């Protein structure tokens, strides 16, 4: 209930606030019904109503389970003490925060900043985890689910840095119940990152699709293995990751890669530049202009696994 959530999050106080993003505000909480710490996401919907079918949609998300998806534990839709409609989703808590924090530590406040950078092998493992989660959503659920908002802040890391994708299914719910705020959020420049990850066809008013997720995954790979945000200007010119996807890799691939990625631990005789070239080329392949010609996520996962086997 709203009361339970209010108590568990300390009255939604700022000390329990983890972060806020495209679809809501996230608090850390200990619910009376749960043994473990949870993350409560309070949705910021502009339009309400249809509470019952909203709840039914959320309930159906609880059945979607995969080792690389964040588990949705329960949902709550009620009226708060001021009479406002209130909707929240309760997820398992991910102690190592989001991939975004690990990729861009200098932008994170000191107390939450990861103490080291991710190794190349850890990055590969995370990419494989994310690809497996998307493949599951796209072809192994009872109906295909497009994530529609894949980006590093939606990739959360548990104790042993296994990646879990969050916010899946939310796009479908928002599209149904609050289409206006869904599109506002997708295209809002104020929402960090989202703009760089959305497939170009979304900008032309196309409905979200699983092929759009493949594009976002390609951008995610480019970001993870260059260390640059999609909106970052490479080489000081107006050469962003986004228009980079329309061109080829430079001959000296290491020129566009942050040095922090290069402590490598690869097998002897297997140069880091070769490994990075293979991963970045895969990233480019995922970002093709034509949605239906993009790779399937199962193929992307398979390629990443074979890169890992070759180099580590
Ligand atoms: P975004 O739109 O940036 O993904 P979210 O509202 O999903 O924002 O989440 C905001 C932040 O809260 C995330 O960047 C992440 O650091 C944190 N967060 C979200 N869900 C969880 C969770 N289940 N466990 C731990 N931290 C979480």
Shape: globular
Mean pLDDT comes to 84
Separation, N- and C-terminal Cα atoms:
49 Å
* Cα-based radius of gyration, to the nearest Å: 20 Å
Quaternary structure: single chain
SSE run: HEEEHEEHHEEHHHHEEHHH
Helix percent band: 25-40%
How many DSSP helices?
A: 11
Small-molecule binders here are:
adenosine-5'-diphosphate
Total number of beta strands: 9
Side by side, the strands of the main sheet go: 1-2-3-5-4
- Biggest beta-sheet profile: 5 strands, antiparallel
Question: Could you tell me the strand content as a percent range?
Answer: 5-15%
Please mark out the parts with pLDDT under 50 across 5 or more consecutive residues, or reply none: 189-193, 235-239
Structural class assignment: alpha+beta
């Amino acid at each position: 209930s709203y009361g339970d959530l209010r108590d568990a999050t300390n009255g939604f106080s700022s000390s329990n606030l983890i972060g806020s993003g495209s679809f809501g505000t996230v608090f850390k909480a200990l619910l009376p019904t749960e043994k473990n710490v949870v993350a409560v996401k309070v949705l910021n919907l502009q339009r309400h109503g249809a509470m019952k079918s909203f709840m039914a949609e959320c309930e159906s998300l609880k059945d979607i389970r995969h080792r690389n998806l964040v588990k949705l534990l329960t949902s709550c839709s009620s009226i708060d003490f001021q009479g406002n409609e209130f909707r929240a989703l309760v997820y398992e808590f991910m102690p190592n925060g989001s991939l975004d924090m690990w990729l861009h530590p200098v932008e994170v406040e000191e107390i939450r900043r990861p103490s080291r950078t991710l190794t190349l092998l850890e990055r590969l493992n995370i990419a494989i985890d994310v690809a497996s989660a998307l493949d599951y959503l796209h072809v192994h659920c009872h109906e295909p689910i497009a994530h529609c908002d894949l980006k590093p802040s939606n990739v959360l890391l548990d104790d042993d840095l296994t990646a879990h994708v969050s916010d899946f299914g939310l796009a479908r719910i928002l599209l149904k119940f609050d289409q206006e705020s869904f599109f506002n959020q997708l295209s809002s420049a104020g929402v960090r990152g989202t703009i760089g990850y959305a497939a170009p066809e979304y900008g032309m008013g196309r409905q979200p699709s699983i092929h759009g997720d493949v594009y976002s995954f390609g951008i995610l790979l480019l970001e993870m293995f260059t260390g640059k945000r999609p909106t970052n200007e490479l080489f000081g010119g107006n050469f962003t990751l986004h228009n980079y996807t329309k061109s080829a890799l430079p001959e000296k691939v290491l020129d566009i890669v942050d040095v922090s990625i290069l402590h490598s631990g690869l097998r002897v005789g297997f140069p880091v530049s070769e490994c990075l070239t293979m991963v970045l080329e895969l990233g480019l392949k995922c970002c093709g202009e034509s949605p239906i010609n993009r790779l399937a996520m199962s193929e992307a996962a398979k390629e990443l696994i074979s890169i890992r086997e070759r180099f580590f």
